[in-house]
Specification:
This protein is of the alpha/beta class and 537 residues long. It folds into 3 domains: 241 residues, 3-Layer(bba) Sandwich (FAD/NAD(P)-binding domain); 98 residues, no CATH class; 139 residues, no CATH class. The chain is 37% helix and 21% strand. The protein contains 18 helices and 22 strands.
Amino acid sequence: MMAEQQYDCIVIGSGIGGLAAASVLAQLAHKRVLVLERHFKLGGFTQTFTRRGYTWDVGLHYVPQMAEGNQTRSLFDFITHAGVKWQKLPTRFDTFVYPDFTFTVSADPGQYLADLVQRFPAEEQGLRRYFHDLGQVATWYEREIWRWSVPAWLAWPLHFANAGPAPLALMTTREYLDRTFRNERLKALLTSQWMDYGLPPSQSAFAIHALVAASYLQGAWYPTGGAQTIAASIVPLIEEAGGACLVNHEVVEILVENAVVKGVRARVKHGRTMEERKFLAPLVVSDAGAYATFTRLMPGRVKLSFREELEAFPQGSTSVTLYLGLKDSPRTLGFQGENHWLFSGYDHDDPHANGLVEGKALTGFLSFPSLKDPEATRHTAEITTQVASQAFADWHATTWMRRGETYRARKASISEALLDLVEQHYPGFRDLVAYQELSTPLTIESFTGHCGGAMYGLPATPEKSRRHWFGAQTPVRGLLLTGSDVCSLGIVGAMMGGVFTTGAALGPAGFLRVMAAAQAYGRTMRAEAAGALPLVV
């Protein structure tokens, strides 16, 4: 007989969306929350790994909106009980490298705009309109998420408030650029961060571009001690409320009776053996993504009007990442902790000028975790570029660490291509490398369960925002979604997904209740900090 255990809530997956929801439910609703993770480590894309003394983050490179007093920072502090400290990146935190010019982004939006106008004076009017539109459309996106996460009777006012900016938000980024600017180099420059949301300008909704671009206007931060501090800070809060976080527990089915959730069935790994267990709860929160939740975990007998539509929806983008251990500090080559985006051309929509093409890396994102983290003890770097998951289809049936010699040869070739790309721009970089290891979409899929190794959930196209399965609420009573598919991609987007989901779980005023708790926690922290300071006479 299959063993059963009862909890107040079950969270599927321990990414930041799932952990954020679990933390808030434990703190505000005093719920006993069970978090089930298929991997042998907690944290999703906030986890880290170590080889030969070098440590890297697997998904976190930089985070926006973590200034003291910022609303997002207050939420993060509440969710982690201020267990994560944030290190600000250099003022010039992003460097965009093109064949005939290099541009550095300032954390001061006024300076950023001035720098753009200086380089493209004929486009000043369009640039000023662009900065205005970023704020307007980012606000539209935030309201839209709230609209899909509250009961229908509360959603109508938000629908009307969002009607005006909707046409702008739901055009593609390419359409917006073409109607606003003439200079092709400027269009390329303004979308240099497109890999942050995984879609080139012709495919992405301007809404997601605006949300991401606007979020970084005040600069970027990095967690002191690395991304692992996020899960390490949240898990004790869940356990203190009587909950638990279990690894090697892969949920294989959401249990539903008469359109009401009852719990989950999980496959539990013990070394080389497996057993199945049932965990029961009146509330289940899925951080597995909309696609996996509704097409793989939901029983086929449960009627979902959008199941076929979701199955036919395009899968999200994926990437390869080369993790590097370095012999010496990258500062010897002039790096200070900023990110470097490397491009071979100006058309981000050209598939022959992006990612890996005929054995060459034509674009890449270079970052230095060790320069961002004041507690790092060894020097590290990462090089990332986007790829098609189909490029690794020959090894899809293999398992992690057992994919064979041809797979290792393919990885070695890709690693060399990525190093060649960086060496072209920064001679001497290769000489710093002491250790290297490449991850592929197969690695991502093995640990996350995301189809094709998709990193950002459902692709942020205009079509996605028009679909009614976009939001925390689901047709099954007691089942909610969380994470990036509820809100937006990235660490902050997935965390906010957890906030909106918890708001939905707590009732019509739930979101406001979470925000009030975060603000109160922030005031308490500031008061305690002020009280701890010596009195100056």
